[in-house]
Design goal:
This protein has 536 residues and is an all-alpha fold. It has helices at residues 3-25, 27-57, 60-73, 77-111, 121-132, 138-150, 155-181, 187-225, 235-273, 280-307, 310-319, 322-349, 351-358, 363-372, 375-391, 396-420, 422-448, 453-480, 489-513, 516-521, 524-532. Helix 11 runs antiparallel to helix 12 (322-349), helix 15 (375-391) runs parallel beside helix 17 (422-448) and helix 18 (453-480) packs antiparallel against helix 19. Keywords: Cell membrane, Membrane, Transmembrane, Transmembrane helix. Its main location: membrane.
Length: 536
């Protein structure tokens, strides 16, 4: 891999991580501004918005990037520019259509979402319509980002993502605070301003991209002068190729929001049927906003690391190199488990102080987070197995596995909520994901002829190390709670820091002692150790 591509991949990954970290930590002040009801309203808007934005952009950045890279390698630069000009118009139409659809459906979505005397259907309609305006710009931005990425220029995407997130979060926090504390506005007005921040953030991101376009257009025009001009591909053939490549990204991208949407549509009715209608809004906010934000943390980092292996998986499969393919698959599955399992076990163990630290002390929040945290492993494995299916050219099964998982979730959600209340929705999600992942793994085994023996053996070792970590951190937690309370912010912080340090020390000591970490990461470990000036 060239140094330019490595640098670009690093920049894009760094930008994504910064954006996700910002997107996580703003929930602390936001929660303290709008409270649990505000969080519920916010999630009512963002779940359908996420689905619509995934459909509107349709995996465009990745698809456009691959298409343009392909023809740039052939020195057919005009092909990519032709697609870009046409795609801008298509994405503009896609954004307008998505905006009009979500804006029109807002009353229906709000009506079937959890509501009570404090969170009405009218409130839900208002916040959903406020966020829908962002759909006018985001698809447009995705086209520009894909164009730059196709030229191996990752800086515009990374910087625009960070700028978009910073502007959005600033507007979310300041807007909601001003409406509630200086304008004496209602909760729905404050949250509407917060959701409208997605549009303001998109303006910031788009301005950043346009600035990059202005700065780099002379260079891009120079490439056109070097165009060979031997390829004349119609727009129809262009879009056909892009749709084939982008479709799997759409289904993978909307998987989690679709599971959340099922909760949004069924949760209130199920809770009402067991006499808990008054708790539905608060419980839904805890389920699909508060705890979900925390559960996604280990998923994002571990998945990002594992997905870097997918290009080499694709290359090995195309070359028919069975040995290398099995080695890459082994590494992908093991790295994912190695990074995710201890993180989710720790999150579950420290659920009470972590929830207190981010929000407030809440028994329901603690219980939901404790059972929800392990589901993060399933989120991560679905994303990675779906990516592997694309790498071995069997992405059609991603659609099948997702539909099966969603059908199971839809079938079990109401019965399990009636049986287990809020935790029932988590269990239904877990069962749905297990079914989807099982299908993906069976397809990988069949078409890649992949043996799972090594992964199972190493997996048992990782589970054993995690068990020792759990015991050590658990004992430490029990001792510390004799004189520290997980119900107060500062003491919860101390508990989390000390217990996490003890658990991580045990886990990584065992990993280095058995050289497991070297089997998984190879020579990278020594380079990291030298940079950190550590010796084990």
């Amino acid at each position: 891999m060239s140094s330019k591509l490595l640098r670009g991949t690093f920049i894009l990954t760094l930008g994504t991580i910064i954006s996700k970290v910002l997107g996580l930590f703003y929930v602390i002040p936001f929660y303290h501004i709008v409270g649990q009801e505000g969080n519920a309203l916010y999630s009512f808007a963002y779940i359908p918005y996420t689905i619509f934005i995934s459909l509107a952009t349709a995996g465009i950045p990745a698809a456009i990037s691959k298409f343009i890279s392909k023809y740039n390698a052939l020195e057919e630069y005009a092909v990519g520019r032709k697609l870009f000009k046409s795609g801008m118009f298509v994405m503009m139409c896609s954004g307008i259509l998505a905006f009009l659809t979500l804006y029109s459906l807002a009353p229906f979505i709000a009506e079937i979402s959890p509501n009570d005397a404090n969170v009405t259907i009218e409130d839900g309609t208002t916040v959903i319509r406020a966020v829908s305006f962002a759909l006018l710009l985001v698809p447009f931005m995705s086209m520009i980002r894909g164009f730059f990425q196709g030229h191996q220029s990752m800086g515009p995407t990374a910087v625009s993502q960070v700028i978009e997130q910073i502007v959005r979060i600033f507007f979310v926090l300041v807007g909601a605070y001003v409406v509630l504390n200086f304008m004496n506005g209602s909760m729905s007005q404050a949250v509407s301003v917060a959701t409208f921040a997605a549009f303001i953030g998109a303006i910031g991101g788009l301005c950043t991209l346009l600035w990059y376009w202005y700065k780099r257009k002379p260079h891009l025009d120079e490439l056109l002068l070097e165009d060979k001009g031997t390829v004349d591909i119609s727009l129809r053939d262009m879009y056909k190729e892009i749709i084939v490549y982008a479709a799997p990204f759409v289904f993978v991208g909307i998987a989690n929001p679709l599971f959340q949407l099922i909760d949004q549509l069924t949760f209130s009715g199920a809770m009402e049927s067991i006499g808990l209608a008054g708790e539905a809004v608060t419980a839904f906010a805890i389920l699909n906003f508060n705890t979900h934000k925390l559960v996604i943390i280990p998923v994002s980092l571990a998945t990002a690391f594992s997905l870097t292996l997918v290009p080499s998986i694709t290359s090995a499969f195309v070359d028919g190199d069975r040995k290398n393919l099995n080695m890459q698959l082994n590494q992908a599955f093991q790295v994912l488990l190695f990074l995710t399992l201890p993180a989710v076990v720790g999150l579950s163990l420290l659920a009470e102080p972590i929830f207190t630290l981010f929000y407030d002390h809440d028994p329901l929040g603690t219980d939901v987070l404790r059972i929800y945290a392990p589901v993060a492993i399933l989120f991560a494995y679905f994303l990675v197995t779906a990516a592997i299916l694309q790498g071995i050219n069997e992405q059609r099964f991603t659609v099948l596995s997702l539909l099966v998982g969603l059908l199971i979730k839809l079938s079990l959600n109401i019965p399990l909520i009636k049986l287990m209340e809020t935790q029932g929705a988590v269990v239904a999600t877990a069962i749905g994901y297990i079914a989807a992942i099982t299908i993906n793994l069976l397809v990988i085994k069949k078409f890649a002829h992949y043996p799972f023996k090594l992964v199972v053996r190493r997996g048992l070792l990782i589970i054993l190390f995690t068990l020792f970590m759990f015991i050590g951190a658990g004992i430490t937690y029990k001792i510390l709670t004799l004189f520290l309370s997980p119900a107060t912010d500062f003491q919860a912080f101390i508990l989390v820091i000390i217990c996490a340090a003890v658990g991580a020390s045990i886990y990584f000591y065992l990993s280095f002692k058995t050289r497991l970490v070297y089997f998984l990461f190879g020579e990278k470990v020594d380079r990291w150790m030298k940079k950190l000036r550590l010796r084990v």
